[in-house]
Amino acid sequence: MTLLRFVLNVLWLVFAGFWMAVGYLLAGIICCILIVTIPFGIASFRIAAYVLWPFGREVVARPDAGVPSVVGNVIWFIVAGWWLALGHLFTSIPLFVSIIGIPFGWANLKLIPVSLMPLGREIVPSDGAFAR
Q: CA 26, CA 95: separation in Å to the nearest integer?
């Protein structure tokens, strides 16, 4: 399974991961300009690392996340979340055109909720062969 994850991650990196990670890095840099939005920048960098190499890891909700995460997610949605969600959507469209890209298109669509609401979630190793 480790070889399969490696192959899937390399294909993901070539077809979608690199460009989406660049988008998250750009959003993180923009968020780190202001002191108030530095936590959003850190979250963006964390998700950039996940988007770059996603197979073998998954995003789960943190049980201790509360009202500050909800408020932060609303601010994140306004500042950068919807731009990144559109990036995932537009990246998935050409992937659906090719047969080999269909699973990666679905993976891109599954990342839209993470791009819209990243606070209150954490990235953990996956128990199964594929991230959920």
A: 23
Cβ neighbors of 131 (< 8 A, separation 6 or more) are 54, 55, 56, 57, 58, 59
Query: Of 106, 111, 81, 110, which Cα lies nearest the Cα of 96?
Result: 106
Helix H or strand E encompassing 28? helix 18-31
Give pLDDT tens digits for 10-65: 999 998 899 999 999 999 999 899 888 898 999 899 999 999 998 888 888 888 88
The pTM (predicted TM-score) of the whole model is 0.84
Cα–Cα distance measured from residue 46 to residue 21, given in angstroms and rounded to the nearest whole number: 10
